[in-house]
Design a protein that fits this description.
- 36% of the residues lie in helices and 17% in strands.
- The chain is α/β, with parallel strands linked by helices.
- It has a single domain (8-195), classed as Phosphoglycerate mutase-like (Rossmann fold, 3-Layer(aba) Sandwich).
- The protein has a six-stranded mixed β-sheet with strand order 3-2-4-1-5-6, sandwiched between helices.
- A hairpin with a 3-residue loop joins strand 5 (173-179) and strand 6.
- Helix 6 packs across helix 7.
- The longest helix is centred in the middle third of the chain and has 18 residues, at 118-135.
- The protein is globular, with a radius of gyration of 16 Å.
- It starts with 7 loop residues before the first strand and ends in a 7-residue tail after the last strand.
- The mean pLDDT is 95.
């Protein structure tokens, strides 16, 4: 990326029924739970006062609802490249259920049959980051757990398999930026301070 003063604020959507149960959710378009709505509303104060050149959101209901409750409904642009990793045959399954079928499975290593491979998800993340680069300035992105982790990996220039070490909670805020004008860095990761006493 060439815009050295740019930061990307990355927000994972609020809780859904399946994020609570640990079920993999990509194309199943679930709304936020009541807790997820409260989490998203807490983002309003957390993000207040930050100037964004553009606000982008995954087209999923959960991401769009999160952006709206955070106060960005009128300026958030849906972007297909920000959709969650396509889980294919693993849609709706928990990691434990997947491991019964395929011991040792890891999404960042193995991908999903009938869905996206790590390489395909990485290529889509690269495309999304090119869009962010073209905007310039601070960009706010609302997306989902695994794909947000992939965005961070590709921002840093890391291979997909490194994603297994990046945890990301619902309604968390992360900031990807640059240090010394050119080195991509994580300025903030998985910040949930705004959710205390939710």
């Amino acid at each position: 990326m060439t815009e050295t003063h740019q930061s990307m604020y990355l927000v994972r959507h609020g809780e859904t029924a399946w994020s609570r149960s640990g079920q993999h959710t990509s194309v199943t378009d679930l709304p936020l739970t009541e807790l997820g709505e409260r989490q998203a509303s807490r983002l309003r104060a957390r993000l207040a006062g930050i100037s964004f050149a553009k606000v982008l959101t995954s087209p999923s209901t959960r991401a769009r609802e999160t952006g709206a409750l955070a106060g960005f409904e009128s300026i958030a642009w849906p972007e297909g490249n920000l959709a969650e990793w396509h889980y294919g045959d693993y849609e709706g399954l928990t990691s434990s259920e997947i491991h019964l079928r395929r011991p040792g499975w890891g999404i960042f290593k193995d991908g999903c049959p009938g869905g996206e491979s790590p390489e395909q998800a990485a290529a889509r993340a690269d495309s999304a980051l090119l869009q962010v680069q073209a905007i310039g300035g601070n960009v706010l992105v609302f997306s989902s757990g695994h794909f947000s982790r992939m965005l961070a990996l590709r921002w840093l220039g890391l291979a997909p398999e490194a994603g297994r070490i990046f945890a990301l909670d619902t309604a968390s805020v992360s900031v990807l930026a640059f240090e010394n004008l050119k080195q991509p860095v994580i300025r903030l990761w998985n910040d949930t301070r705004h959710l205390v006493d939710q």
